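Predict structure. Input: Glycine/betaine ABC transporter substrate-binding protein, 331 residues.
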Amino acid sequence: MAGYARAQPATGTAADIGWNGKAQPPRYEGQIFPPWQHGENNDAVNKGFEFTVPEVDVMADFHGDLTDPKLVLYVGGNYYFAMAPLVAAFEQQNPQYKGRIFYVTIPPGMLVTAMKEGGTFTSGNMTFTARPDAYFAGLKKVEALITTGELTGPAVPYVTNNLTIMVPKGNPAHITGLADLGRPGLRLVMPNPAYEGIARQIQASLVKAGGAALEKQVYETGVANGTTILTHIHHRQTPLFLMQGLADAGITWKSEAVFQEQAGHPISDVPIPAALNTTAIYAGAMVKGAAHPDAAKAWLEFIHSPAALEIFERYDFKPYTGSTPGPAPAG
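Output follows.
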């Protein structure tokens, strides 16, 4: 097949086998790999010996000191980048929690699975338990978990978010809108419907833009022929794959593209018109049987305060006003 070199069995010495066929250090720019905030998302007072190796030894979605936390938050990963300033502002108002907040920022569905496992996680060779005091996701998801008894009401909505098409800086594939995502040969990175609620909103927007045929091209045909990569943690994997040159475009929340540009990464985005877009409402609630109920209540009060909303607005979130039409659950 033209342009394709089949891998040959290794026949050389150990010195000949390795990166790109030679024993040499990996040639990548380490700053493109998470975590991207240089420790700011860890409010531990004493960080001890710091051991983070990009792509090899890194836990980008677990934040803080596990020793004796006084507030544990399960936060849908759609705004992991806003958590550092949010925690700092909360601790300024509530200094008794300084350095005592632990939070997890993986997709909301995975957080529910973790709750059902008693808050026990295994990442690589490390297993630990951090039972949540409060949970944050889309409003409908939070309301559903209140109904089934995992959460204690009321639900507290605070901000909204919209979709966008994330692309590498300069938009080399010349994406102009959702319809372009059906272009043959275009390489896409898309949230996995099995793990990420955002995929449902994306599928609905694809149908609005190009009918069932466009949605099928992106999520069925593309997956089958390898031109669509499905993620597990869309909010980190999409820009990572774009910066590595593994994809040409992917749909994310607008806030994520804004953060990537603010961080100085070679990322841009193509806006999706309101008629084709989806608005998500983010909300939270206390977990039933929370170990730190007073702390959870304090965070839930803080999350829709002027101080918190000002931080969210830096990333293009909009304050929830109770009048957003047609809300859909956040990813």
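Confidence is low (pLDDT under 50) at residues 1-28, 324-331.
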